[in-house]
Amino acid sequence: MAAATSSIAPPLSCPSKALRTSKATSLAFGFVSSTSKSLRSLTATVPGNGTGSSLSARMVASSAVRAPVSLDFETSVFKKEKVSLAGYDEYIVRGGRDLFKHLPDAFKGIKQIGVIGWGSQGPAQAQNLRDSLLEAKSDIVVKIGLRKGSKSFEEARAVGFTEESGTLGDIWETISGSDLVLLLISDAAQADNYEKIFSHMKPNSILGLSHGFLLGHLQSMGLDFPKNISVVAVCPKGMGPSVRRLYVQGKEINGAGINASFAVHQDVDGRAADVALGWSVALGSPFTFATTLEQEYKSDIFGERGILLGAVHGIVESLFRRYTENGMSEDLAYKNTVECITGTISRTISTQGMLAVYNSLSEEGKKDFETAYSASFYPCMEILYECYEDVAAGSEIRSVVLAGRRFYDKEGLPAFPMGKIDQTRMWKVGERVRKSRPAGDLGPLYPFTAGVYVALMMAQIEILRKKGHSYSEIINESVIESVDSLNPFMHARGVSFMVDNCSTTARLGSRKWAPRFDYNLTQQALVAVDSGAPINKDLISNFFADPVHGAIEVCAQLRPTVDISVPEDADFVRPELRQSS
Known about the structure:
Elements: E1 19-22, E2 70-73, E3 81-85, E4 88-94, H1 103-106, E5 112-116, H2 122-135, E6 141-146, H3 152-158, E7 168-170, H4 171-176, E8 180-183, H5 187-200, E9 206-209, H6 213-220, E10 230-236, H7 240-249, E11 260-266, H8 272-283, E12 287-290, H9 293-305, H10 310-325, H11 330-352, H12 354-359, H13 363-392, H14 395-405, H15 425-436, H16 447-466, H17 471-493, H18 495-501, H19 504-530, H20 537-545, H21 548-557, H22 575-580
Parallel strand pairs: 5-6, 5-8, 6-7, 8-9, 9-10, 11-12
Antiparallel strand pairs: 1-2, 3-4, 4-12, 10-11
EC number: 1.1.1.86
Keywords: Amino-acid biosynthesis, Branched-chain amino acid biosynthesis, Magnesium, Metal-binding, NADP, Oxidoreductase
Protein name: Ketol-acid reductoisomerase
């Protein structure tokens, strides 16, 4: 539908008062057996004598790195804590079920929370909020709002939301009757329906987002949110099923859950920060860090196209093809690509950090790691750099909106919904491998794959760092969300399953950018390896000395002691996809 502008207020000229800004190809492989729950301080013997900036002579000098923006905030309900990450001070709020007693104070003045949508985040957030408020003995109603005739009504009823109890109803009635509206419909749907949504909101109510996409869409048209509502965000650093899975697992573990960022974009009455923090605590976030809505959508959309999904899809396709072409069996090639990344590598990074992956290797394995890392870093960074700038310029947001409209018949052309990717040879091999996989098997640690994956992770970290994102955002978006949320689900069901079933924006991004990573690795990195290009010693040296390792260690100390448990038959298919298939 065409977007009119009459009901949208002009852009605000001043930021929220709740936040204030201050600068502040070997076949040998090994296994990692450590199950430590906290990151250990690790050292590595640095090969060569390379020194230099945070990348190498090819990159700009370290003095040109933009200092990350650290957002301070005020809260009258929760305890704010200062942490130092890579020399920069940031502020967080730790979570925990012992804080649920403060939710009535955080949500003061709120009688109904409307959760709009039943996609990736909706089911998890609605259930977590309901359960947390019940534990807090609060009478705040959590109500689901859906389109009339939506097949998701049945899904919502199955987990206890009903029309009879006043906790399930029509989307527009729910918005009109809610003091806090959590808008969790797809990004494309938000872009097409924002005017009607705004017109149904009560004055002085609060709009809650779990993604900054809508702000980016409004900015692309020179618009902002209406002035008579507050706008906040709580953005879990994991997909909805992970948010719910860890919350349930952690009922006996205080604070178990998925980290979240929060932002206050607009605050009309001074309540916004406490409401957002209460929302995050109620979801079970172990710790919540501050960001801006703009920084969030840039890092999140970029991350989905990078290491969270698109880039992983691309590199495993590239490496599986290479390994099989060089004589490796299909089953072993799958284990040494997908299983290696989603299993052993992810668990090791989650509990011990990236350096532990390298230190777990034999001397020969370390050479293979260095070869792969050196050859892959810049080809990965090239695509990541382009991707970030496309997101920042609004190109990716526009692409998602237009793609959403192509899902339906339009202008005499047929509908083109996203097709499945799981019928090709690699993913059929994956089905076979998972069927015969022993319970609890995390797969091998294959040095070459490890080098490529860690190079990708470090390249993404460096792009976000150069663009001025906080270390909390960098680490959660590039490391924690990957190894603690998405990869465990991909280990259970396969990368292709995730590409076919996660959020619309992420699925679109993966399909668009995965081939770019595949081609760049194949055409640049692997060609360099085959031609005997020397290892970039400065690049390897900078990897070992990078301050991000210490920052990850601090974040790992805030990590709950429970690992996400995903059964092999884990069902996290979005309702509309399950119905259509």
